[in-house]
């Protein structure tokens, strides 16, 4: 399984239109051999993004200084936090604590939404 560094993702930073209903899984498409990121909202105190992962793609282990809420919106993914494996199915979510090493992977295509809150952990 390949793990792509976060900097190698395809990124769309155009925010979504406000006051319009969306199906989260339909807001982003899969791209062969890639991880794609779509920005939903970006604010100084946090952001919301949707990511799509092609089969065998993932994110290498990283640590962020902020809590991150991750929700699987299509498929199945494994999120390893501080060495503990968590298998998440469509509709399931998990909070990745600030300053904790984590990685994301799967043997199949999946989509997830992440919300980062950028306050309270300025250490």
Q: Number of domains in the coordinates?
A: 1
Please list the strands of the largest sheet in the order they lie side by side. 1-2-3-10-5-8
Q: Which stretches of 5+ consecutive residues score pLDDT under 50? A: 1-8
Task: Give the N-to-C terminal Cα separation.
Answer: 34 Å
Strand runs, count: 10
Task: Write a concise synopsis of the structure shown.
With 123 residues, the protein is mainly beta. The protein has strands spanning 10-12, 35-43, 46-53, 59-62, 67-74, 76-81, 84-89, 93-96, 102-105, 110-117.
Characterization of the model:
This protein is an all-beta fold and 123 residues long. It has one domain (6-117): Jelly Rolls. It contains no helices and 10 strands. It has strands at residues 10-12, 35-43, 46-53, 59-62, 67-74, 76-81, 84-89, 93-96, 102-105, 110-117. The protein has a 6-stranded mixed β-sheet with strand order 1-2-3-10-5-8, with no helix packed on it. A hairpin with a 2-residue loop joins strand 2 (35-43) and strand 3. The protein is globular and about 40 Å long. The N and C termini lie far apart (34 Å). Mean pLDDT is 88; it is low at 1-8.
